[in-house]
Amino acid sequence: EDGYDLWLRYEQASEDLRPDYRKQISxxxxxxxxxxxxxxxxEMATGLAxxxxxxxxxxxxxxxxxxxxxxxxxxxxDLDLDRADVGPEGYAITQMRRDGRILTIxxxxxxxxxxxxxxxxxxxxxxxEPIAGIDLVSRPATQHRLLNHWDNLDRYVERGYAGQSLWxxxxxPDYRDPRYTDYARANAAIGVNGTSLTNVNAxxxxxxxxxxxxxxxxxxxxxxxxxxxxxxxxxxxxxxIGGLDTADPSNEEVQAWWEAKAEEIxxxxxxxxxxxxxxxxxxxxxxxxxxxxxxxxxxxLADAVxxxxxxxxxxxxxYAADETQDRAKQAWEEFVPFDGQFRDNVLIQVKNGPIDFxxxxxxxxxxxxxxxxxxxxxxxxxxxxLGFATHLAYLGTMWEETLDAPAQRTEEGExxxxxxxxxSGNDAYxxxxxxxxxxxxxxxxxxxxxxxxxxxxxxxxxxWDPALDAETVAREWAAMTFTPDRAFLxxxxxxxxxxxxxxxxxxxxxxLHHLMDTxxxxxxxxxxxxxxxxxxxxxxxxKADEDGIGFDxxxxxxxxxxxxxxxLREEWDDPETTPDELLLxxxxxxxxxxxxxxxxxxxxxxxxxxxxVDEVEAMRETWDGxxxxxxxxxxxxxxxxxxxxxxxxxxxxxxxxxxxxxxxxRDLPDGYEAPPHDVDHYKSLYFPSAPGNG
Length: 694
Ligand SMILES: CO[C@H]1[C@H](O)[C@@H](O)[C@H](O)O[C@@H]1C(=O)O
Description:
With 694 residues, the chain is α/β, with parallel strands linked by helices. It folds into three domains: 18-138, Chitobiase/beta-hexosaminidase domain 2-like (Chitobiase, domain 2); 144-481, TIM Barrel; 504-551 and 588-684, Alpha-d-glucuronidase, C-terminal Domain (Alpha-Beta Complex), CATH 3.90.1330. The protein contains 20 helices and 18 strands. The strands form four sheets. An eight-stranded parallel barrel has the order 7-8-9-10-11-12-13-16. A six-stranded mixed sheet has the order 2-1-3-5-4-6. β4 (91-98) and β5 (101-108) form a beta hairpin. α7 crosses α8 (294-305), α13 (470-481) packs across α14 (486-507) and α18 (601-624) packs antiparallel against α19. The chain is globular and about 80 Å long. The structure holds 4-O-methyl-beta-D-glucopyranuronic acid. Residues 150, 158-159, 200-201, 278, 282, 317, 356-357, 384, 694 line the site of 4-O-methyl-beta-D-glucopyranuronic acid (GCW). 4-O-methyl-beta-D-glucopyranuronic acid binds next to loops.
């Protein structure tokens, strides 16, 4: 057991369920004849053979007996079904009795809906649910559900902790690694329908014929699984590979170059999804280099792909040239003035928080800042700031917290969440999307650790249905990855549900952020204060001195709080009403500030760092007790990684506390163990061979 099969392990159903499943599914047919239907047939055969533990053939016409039958409503017209409102990608699964036999029916409007429904039924069974009387409809809430790979053409993955890039450009186009198919299956199983193959720190080369020829077979492999290929567009490509001397979006030659380039790409990949762009951020070229704005840049690319049905995802992760202003405010300031000026096929892709994928941030104020601009969520599945692949941190809770956060109030007093803002508009489905920065590489288990697979899974599920709760998703995943046995699921799901908060506690509690060491972003570095840009330094973010700690973003500080809706501005402007979780994000407070708990701020900080370590100890204990339910190989790897996590949770706790003790001149309150070393020791540690550096 090496984790390769992800959520597609198709273990046989329990003794309680198997006889009944077998009785209700004595014959199987999937009607239709596209490559997508063929993929559904193949998946159904493989899946049911495992679950029912018998040889399974999937026919192409409705057989006799208790039958499972799948197809589009058109293909199933003989059955005269009531059509459910499943939309272009959704499906319905129902049961009915006909002529004394049981029919289990998967129906959809499209072939891809049939494939999603196939996965849906298999997953239902893998999660240990009965199928008698099954009656469900599932359709995605968002239209574009994409993985973003930060993969370089030399197969190095930026912030990747799971080996090399899957895309073997050297052997493409001639060799189509079977792994590409498994990647497509795993993604289709969770509803992901797009993949951007290359790093947002883009290399223009990928747009040359040499690479397009290699990207085309990837698109061919993914197509039956409903997955479109996207590429990152380097804004200066017209200069680098086009021989022009400018990339100015108002220049007609530049526009014509992109139009021709789009045309060329669509010749290789007829259903190419479009471009993902990082511009004017961290040294990437962009329209501002020519005194143009984000809308000018995005619209030029949007016009080039529009005739072919493509979209542009333009990232809002920007760094303003003015490095003295609060970085948390920058995206809002660069995008809100252009609200309403972006083309219809442009989505602005916004990181969940205003800074950068920290263990906890408030949601990005952009989500409530624009009215006539389509926004899409960007989550980071790869755990750049949450312990890479070794630390167990289930991110479903973090994403749920963002998606469900109240963001705006209507005139009628109705509260709208971030999800509401993201999918708002007349036809939410057609104007919305979610992107996840992939954690996938060539490691046998794909994600660098078994539990990191849960984050890939949760991303897909929440992109499909942002209203799902994180616990349900964790349960689904754990049941399919290990066992639906409740004696395993209850403790393990509880462990997953608390895991991200443990990381917050031992890394950056109470609204602290960006305390990691520079470059690798793995270990603690709160003392770092000498990097070129002020806003690269942890010291810029925590502002700890002998009097207090925290970043004042209230109306008397940077006033970032005013980028939020009135009801939030009011709540967060005052430390007394700001929730503890965001306290030091918005306020600079004295070490003696009295917390709701009755502790002083200093005591509270210490309490959280300790709690984080305790929590990881408890996770190890939980996992030790799970040995009877998990194969030895996976159990041991997870146990080893938890041991690493505990060691490093202590490292974070001790290093941060030693540093804060030094700047504040305080000792630890009674009952807490002092860090074994002073801060100089932690400063002198360095982290060798960190993967994933930018
Ligand atoms: C791709 O660059 C990344 C960079 O490695 C990462 O450290 C930062 O968090 O975010 C950047 C971004 O999101 O563009």
